C-alpha cells in the first residue's frame, strides 16, 4: 500500500489517483518513488568505495612520481647520498713549505714514537707539489704524494685517521704499512725517500716528477 501525499490516506500501489481525495499520486511514495530510492541507495553504496579507490590511486601516483624524480631528475641527490658515505669531515690541512738545495730536500727526522703524517709543499714549475711523510706502524719512514692516480683531479688529497691515510675524495683508507708498498688505484702515489743523519731526504727531481698530479 502507498500513502497519499495530500490527504495521508492509504491507496493501492498501482493507483494513479487517491480514492479519498482524487489527488494524483505522482508525488506519493509509490513504486516509482521506491524504485528511485533503491537506485539512489545503490549509487550511494558505490560512491564510498569509488572515492577510496581513487584516493589510493592518487597516493600511489604521487609516490611513483617522487621516486622517479629522485632517481632520474636529481643526480645531485645521488651525489649527496654518495658524499655522505665518505670519511669523517676533515679540517684544513696545514702544509709546511720546503725548498731544495743541491738537488735535495731535507726534512727533520721524525721521532721514533711519532705516528703523525706531516704534510709539505714544494714549488716547482709554477706548481705546488704536495706530499706527506710519516713513520709507519712498522717503524719505517714513508713518503708519498698527497694524491692518487684515480682521484688526483679533485685535488683533495688525504687526511689521517688513526693508522690510515684516507682519500678525501672517495673516502677509502690505506694503512701506513702499505704506503709505498701497494700502489695504483686510490693508494697514495709513492715518493722515494731516505733517512740520513737524522733527516728525511728527498730528491728534487723525484718531487718534480709528481708535478703532473697537481
Main beta sheet strand tally, sense and closure: 4 strands, mixed
Unreliable residue runs: 67-89
Rg calc: 42 Å
Q: Would you tell me the structural class of the helices and strands?
A: alpha+beta
Give the mean pLDDT. 77
Tell me what portion of residues adopts beta-strand conformation. 15-25%
Question: How would you describe the shape?
Answer: rod-shaped
Describe, in plain words, how this protein is organized in 3D.
The chain has 214 residues and is an alpha+beta fold. 27% of the residues lie in helices and 24% in strands. The chain contains three helices and twelve strands. It has helices at residues 31-73, 75-83, 204-208; strands spanning 2-3, 10-11, 96-98, 104-108, 118-124, 127-135, 141-145, 158-161, 164-167, 173-175, 194-196, 199-203. The strands form four sheets. A four-stranded mixed sheet has the order 3-5-6-7, with no helix packed on it. Strands 4-12-11 form a three-stranded antiparallel sheet. A three-stranded antiparallel sheet has the order 8-9-10, with no helix packed on it. The radius of gyration is 42 Å and the shape is rod-shaped. The termini are far apart. Mean pLDDT is 77; it is low at 67-89.
